[in-house]
Amino acid sequence: MASSGVAAFGTSISPSAGEITNITGPGISVDEVEITNHSSSDDCKEFVPGLIDGGEFSVEGNLTSTVVTGVYTDLLARTSKSYTITFPNGMTWTFTGYPKSFETDSPVDGKLGFSATFRVTGKPVLAST
C-alpha cells in the first residue's frame, strides 16, 4: 500500500509572518496531578490527567519588513491573535496566541533571518478535511 504522506512545502500561516522557512508545533501536553495517598496500592504513585497546555509554536524565516511590522510589533504590543497553520494536505491548526520571543540571525556566510516563538492560549484545534 502506498503512503499517503505529503511534502511539507507550501505550509502556510495566517496572519502571515513573512517569508517562513520552518514552522514547529504547537506542542500540546497534559499536566499530571498526583493523587497518591496513604492507601495507594503497591507503594506506587497515582496520577490523573490535569489541565491541557496548548504549548508553543515557533517559526523561522527570512528577516523582512513584513516581520518587523507584524511579529515584532505584536510582541511589543503584547497582542494576541487567532492563527491558522494550513498544511498542503488540507489539515489545519487553529488557535489563539501571542509572540513570546523574537530573535534575529545574521551569520557571516548565510541569510539574514529571524526566529520567533508564540505562546498558545486556550485550546488549539487540529482539523482534517
Keywords for this entry:
129 residues; mainly beta; six-stranded antiparallel β-sheet; 8 strands
Give the termini distance in whole angstroms.
21 Å
Run of helices and strands:
EEEEEHEEE
Average pLDDT reading:
93
Which strands sit side by side, in order, in the main sheet?
1-6-7-8-5-2
Q: What form results from the Cα inertia axes?
A: extended
Judged by helices, strands and strand pairing, the structural class is mainly beta
Name the beta content range. over 45%
Strand count: 8
Describe the structure.
The protein has 129 residues and is mostly beta strands. Helix content is 10%, strand content 50%. The protein has one helix at residues 65-77; strands at residues 12-14, 19-24, 29-34, 47-53, 56-62, 81-86, 92-105, 113-127. The two termini are 21 Å apart.
Helix and strand arrangement:
Elements: E1 12-14, E2 19-24, E3 29-34, E4 47-53, E5 56-62, H1 65-77, E6 81-86, E7 92-105, E8 113-127
Antiparallel strand pairs: 1-6, 2-5, 3-4, 5-8, 6-7, 7-8
How do you describe this structure in short?
Helices cover 10% and strands 50% of the residues.
